[in-house]
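Tutorial, part two.
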Amino acid sequence: MRTFRVGIPSLLGVRKKKRALDRAARTTATAVAPRLKRLTAGQRLDLLVVFVSLVLYAIAWPTLQVTHHVPAGVQPVIAGLAALPLLLIRANPALGWAISAAGALVIPLVYDRADGYDFPWQVVHVMVIMALLLAVSMRSPLPVVGVAWMATALLFLADAPGQDGRGWAFGLTVLVLFGLLIRWLVLSRRQLAQQEEVNEVERARRAILEEKTRIARDLHDVVAHHMSLVVVQAQSAPYRIAGVSPEVKAEFESIGATAREALNEIRGMLGVLRSDGQLAENAPVPGIGRIDELIEGSRRAGMTVSIERHGLPASMSDTAGLAIYRILQESLSNAARHAPGAAVRVALAVEGALATLIVANDAPPSPPAVSSSRSGGHGIIGMQDRALSVGGTLTAVSAPDGGFEVRARIPIGATLAVSEVPVAPA
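Running the prediction step on this input gives:
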């Protein structure tokens, strides 16, 4: 009875220890699992390689005395030559194969085989060198693959007993061909994925261009419609309104002429974007030859504009002339919007192959009715892009007296989108 009473506490203690060990094991597994989940696929594969290499090393060391006559102090090194080169299968398979092949060449020459064991290497060594040869055929350059295949085949032909050498050489050849097949399949799939990515980018770019084209088409239709109404109203106003004085009639004619000019330019730029496929009107491209018309139109609008010319060339490329015209047009529009009533000075000079355009205005007599912060803010950026597209530069700065100056330098022989000259910041 005493024995029974003593045995019950002992049994309970064993159960408590077992439950404590189970809880510790579960706690350890719970703590390790999240860490393993945070590892990438490559890191997990590296851990697997290390684990397999250590397992093979643990097999090769104790079994080495069964296959070869190796002193006990050297056995860890020989076992390491047989198993541990597998650690390089991902980092550098060619180097791992070279170490394994060198060990396979030296071991049979230095150490005799044990009685009853006819093969020159351990099974672990053969498994490792074949795995490394497969990795070399899949990842290394083709000349390295050829050297590794020939060297390994000759090694087996020279050291394998009897007819086994030929069989091993044939098997190694099949192994290398299999690795090359996998390599080409992976390479083709990778190239296909890259091509699909390029196609996807191209499709996205095409979608953006189509959307921009649609917006530009809508812009053309809307603006052209309203500008046509302006032209019609300006031309018909003297006939619809009684008692129109000659001065007012001339003003209406000026408004109509300006609106017609703007309408023609809009049609010339955006008419090609219409979905009906009709060609735009063959209107001449604006250039420096039409600067006087631009200045005169600004004067008719009430602006005070003066212009100076120095060294104008006999000829200029259409792209350079168009850039100068558009920059001057935008500068005059900005001056009329943000500095109404201020005098504007225009200077156009050509020195060598470079044209310099300066548009400066004084401070406005009174603040403009529309704040510049609500005007959109894209005029200067557009002028800078226009200058950059022909290889020029543009700066736009405020003067200390409250005025504003735009200075553009344009190559007179420029062609569109051939230069990457940086634009000075505004």
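The radius of gyration is 43 Å. In part three we will examine how such features are distributed along the chain.
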